[in-house]
Structures are given as C-alpha cells and as structure tokens.
Amino acid sequence: MSGLTAPKGTFDVLPPESARFLAVRETLTAPLRRAGYGYVETPVFEHTEVFSRGVGESTDVVTKEMYTFDDRGGRSLTLRPELTAGLVRAFIEHRLHTGPLPVKLWTVGSAFRYERPQAGRYRHFTQVDMEALGVDDPALDAEVVALGVQGFRDLGLTDFELLLTSLGDATDRPPYREKLVEYLEKLDLDEETRRRAEINPLRVLDDKRPEVQAQLDDAPLMVDHLSDATRAHYDAVRQHLTDLGVTWTEAPRLVRGLDYYTKTTFEFVHSGLGAQSAIGGGGRYDGLSAALGGPDVSGIGYAVGVDRTLLAVQAEGLDVAAAAGVRAFVVPLGAEAKRLAVRLVGQLRQAGVPADTVYGDRGLKGAMRAAERSGASHAVVVGERDLADGVGQLKDLRTGEQRAVPVGDLFEALRTAVSA
Ligand code: HAM
C-alpha cells in the first residue's frame, strides 16, 4: 500500500525551515501592528458570492481557480482564494464604517487557488493581508504602500521593486474602456480572448502570450486617460511616497489578477524568483464594499505571499531565524537524574529560558548529539556519580569547556551562562 501524500500543489512546512517561515510571517506583520492596524480573523470559506461579486466574474481566479463546493445544507461555499473580499464582507456585516475611520485591519492565513503548480505557485498558500477602509486620502495610499516596503526591508531584502500605477476611477474608466475596446477590436485575437475582452478589456493587456503582446505596443493606457481629479490623487500619492523615502517604478501596463482595483494599484516583484516574481500586491478598491451590498466607502490594502517572500529570503541568502531553537539543554543519565532534569527544564522554561531535554533511553552519546542538534549554547550533564557527589556538569557546547556545579546552583548557573 502506498502512503498518503499532501495533495498536488500543497506542501508541509517542517522544522527547521518552519522557523524561517514563522520569522517571515512575524516580520511582515510587525510594521502593521506598529501602525495601528488591528488583527482580524474571518472564516477560511465564505459564500461563493463574496468572491464572484467581490473579485470579479472575468478573473481567472473566479472562473477557473476557486475551490467551490455545496455543503450538506446545500449552500455554495468557496475556500477563500484571497483575503480581501472576506475582510470587506466582515467590515460590512459588523458595520465598522459607523466607527472611527479609517478602519485599519490585518490578518494572515491560508488562501486556495486551483492553479497549475510550479515554483512559487501553489494551490494552498499563505498571505499576510492588510486593509484600510473608509477614507480616500492619498496619504493613506502612501502609508499602505510604505508599510509593504517596510516589511520587506525589515527582512533584509534588497532585490525587490515596487511597481506602481493608477487604474482610474468609476468616471475615468468607461471612456478609457471604450478606447481600449476600439483598439482591441482591430487586433487578431482568438474567440476566448475576445470574450474575456468583452467582460474586462484591461485583462487583455495582461495576456502573457507573445503573439498577443506583440499587438499591444500602441494600446491606449489608463494613466494617459486619467481625469484631473484622479491624476491629482495619483500625484499626491507619489509626493507622499517620496517624502516617506519610498522609490518605485511606473508600471502603466500593470494589470492585477482581481477586478476590484481603482486608482492607486501596485505590485512588489523580486528579481530572484523566476516566473512567479510577485511577492505582494494591492491597491485601492473604491467600489468593492458597494459591490458586496455594503456602504459606498473606499478601501485600499495589499497582500504579501509568505511562501514567495520566504523564497526571496532564500534567494538573497538571508538568515532570518537566527533566534530560533533552544538555549539550554539538560542531559540526565539514570532515573534519579531524570527527575532533576525534568524539574530543571521546567524551572528554566518558567523563567523564560528556551530549554529542552531528552526523552526515552538515549544513552550518553545519543543524548549529547541531541544537545548539539538543539542549538543550545550550554548543557547540564548529570550522571549517577555526579549525583552522588551532589553536582552536575555545566558544559559550554561551543568550546567543550566543562565544570562541576552544586545541584542547588544548577538553575542559576545555566540561566546565567545562556544569557551571557
Ligand atoms: P494577489 O496579487 O492575487 O492579491 O496576491 C497577493 C500575493 O499572494 C501575490 O503577490 C503572491 O505573492 C501571493 N500568491 C498569489 N497566488 C499565489 C499562489 N498560487 N501561490 C503562492 N503565492 C501566491 C490579492 O490576493 C489581493 N487580495 C491583495 C489585496 C489586498 N488587494 C487589496 N487588498
């Protein structure tokens, strides 16, 4: 019988790599917590409509990639392909717009997309997501973008770039859309692409096929057709970004995979990742709340892919989890020493010192190997003869130096040694 494996496109995160995964997740969320964003949890599945109405019917995400199923009560539910629509659903349901604005939220968790798996592209992945709702202020756009940049910087990443553009608003979009449709009609496109163009012509700009790209050189671009108001908004965002010390690349052809974006739109790309180079992305979505049946309020946010960011960290050879593992280790030899070891480790942990011991009968050699592998800087070894003498051996695992310490002083000695 063959054993069961994780489903295609999914993977397990195991120690010791998992320490890096956690460190990346922590570091990406720390700037949000420092900037007044509050933690939210929403369900991993939502009514399918949340995504079909929220993310948009013309997107690959909704048409091809959702894990949708009927539950036993006959409801159509979908595993979230992204976190924004669910957060906005919660914002509406709990009438958060009636409180102080903007409402600043963050979350981190699983997302699911039935995509073709490849390096950096999975069917189950983890996003850090943040949203600022209820205020349309270019300074808020700049705050959001800068917080994304901060997370990557705090990890020590340098080979990433911020791509920035404005996708216009509800008044700029229709006339631009008409111009683009007019342009696309003259091109040599297959039936399916034409159908997609009818629902959302912008998506054609994002078509990766060379035969399509070759025809798009002179396509009209949204940034060249912004109204005065939207242009002023975008100018102000860029001014604030400059003041915040954030640099960017103008990306007038940037098309995001989700339909809700308006005005400021951005992506973070890393040069060490190959085809799946986007480590994060986001933008303003001023119609999303209304599309989900809520108040007509604005919003902006981003999501960062934790898995891809971890790949970026590895690509740059950064050590982000230096503090992981235990600091103190206790090696008991014999039943009496075992009691002392369990007590000592318990005391150390209570005092906040990361500590561990061996379980099962490992013998001196196996136990010392476990001590070395644990990452601890110091160990206490207690043998039967030591106990008879009323001592334990305090050993510096880095130098091999060793000295006898009275049993009653072991806790203090070990605690002092590992924090030196
Ligand atoms: P997104 O660009 O679809 O945006 O996803 C954000 C990030 O999630 C991507 O840049 C990538 O790092 C990661 N990601 C997406 N799909 C996969 C996958 N199949 N495997 C691994 N990583 C993946 C959103 O999801 C929006 N909700 C962001 C947002 C928040 N916009 C406004 N607020």
UniProtKB/TrEMBL annotation:
PROSITE patterns: AA_TRNA_LIGASE_II. L-histidine binds at residues 82-84, 113, 127, 131, 256, 260-261. One of its GO terms (molecular function) is histidine-tRNA ligase activity. Keywords: Aminoacyl-tRNA synthetase, ATP-binding, Cytoplasm, Ligase, Nucleotide-binding, Protein biosynthesis. It comes from the Bacteria. The keyword Ubl conjugation does not apply. It is found in: Cytoplasm. It is an enzyme of class 6 (ligase). One of its GO terms (cellular component) is cytoplasm. Residues 23-332 form the Aminoacyl-transfer RNA synthetases class-II family profile domain. Belongs to the class-II aminoacyl-tRNA synthetase family. This is Histidine--tRNA ligase. It comes from Geodermatophilus saharensis.
